[in-house]
Design brief:
mainly alpha, 10 helices, flat
């Protein structure tokens, strides 16, 4: 497992968000998505990287098929699914990598390094703790419902949507409000809102691997910018 610097991850976030505003050919989009998936492998999450790579290949194949018969009704559905939804796939890839590998202390350190305002630092620190907590609560609710014989399988959840909403999603949403309030209080109690100087126990180092991956990312960004300008 090789660590990736928080600075490199910040570049990934900028790169993924920039892709929303440009339309690129499918081969280049696939190459960029493979680049994002490679970070999962680098940090030791090879299975997740392979799973996301398979998703990218499916979207690339679907986008190519959609271009074969774009005037038909099935073509419009394929365009919406594989081109429209696939447009946000880079954001999903980067978000999955960030949420799964980034510590809150690293993120707060970066935000303070770039002199981000307090109104941004506090919500982001709460957000990164919110989703893992909600996922843990969802798993607990599912185990409790399975013990009672309710929504034992995914098929049961699909066949009985009202029961699923009543016994799973309503308690989850109700608990999510309390979780957000508790996490905010915990962050403020730790002094995150204190405007004074802060120290960090996290060692943030920009290694040669970071330089290599950033250089590759900049090359892909340059290719995307060139293609976007050429198409315009």
């Amino acid at each position: 497992m090789r660590p990736i610097s928080i600075y490199t991850r910040f570049l990934l976030v900028i790169f993924a968000n920039a892709l929303i505003f440009v339309t690129l050919p499918t081969p280049l989009v696939l190459a960029i998505n493979i680049y994002f998936c490679s970070f999962q492998v680098i940090v030791g999450r090879a299975r997740k990287g392979q799973a996301w790579l398979l998703v990218c290949l499916v979207f690339a194949l679907g986008a190519s098929l959609a271009m074969v018969f774009p005037e038909n009704l099935p073509g419009h559905y394929l365009l919406f699914l594989f081109v429209g939804v696939g447009r946000v796939l880079p954001l999903v890839l980067v978000a999955a990598f960030m949420m799964g590998t980034t510590k809150v202390s690293e993120l707060v350190y970066l935000l303070r390094k770039i002199h981000a305002p307090q109104w941004l630092v506090i919500p982001v620190s709460v957000l990164f703790r919110f989703f893992p907590t909600v996922r843990h609560d969802y798993a607990q609710i599912r185990r409790a419902m399975k013990f009672r014989g309710i929504a034992v399988t995914t098929g049961d959840m699909v066949r009985h949507p009202m029961r699923t909403m009543e016994y799973i999603y309503v308690p989850l949403l109700n608990n999510a409000t309390n979780v957000a309030s508790d996490l905010t209080s915990a962050a403020l109690t730790r002094g995150i809102g204190d405007p004074g100087p802060k120290t960090s126990i996290q060692r943030i180092a920009f290694t040669g691997l970071d330089a290599l991956m950033c250089a590759l990312g900049l090359v892909l960004m340059g290719c995307g910018a060139y293609v976007a300008m050429f198409q315009a």
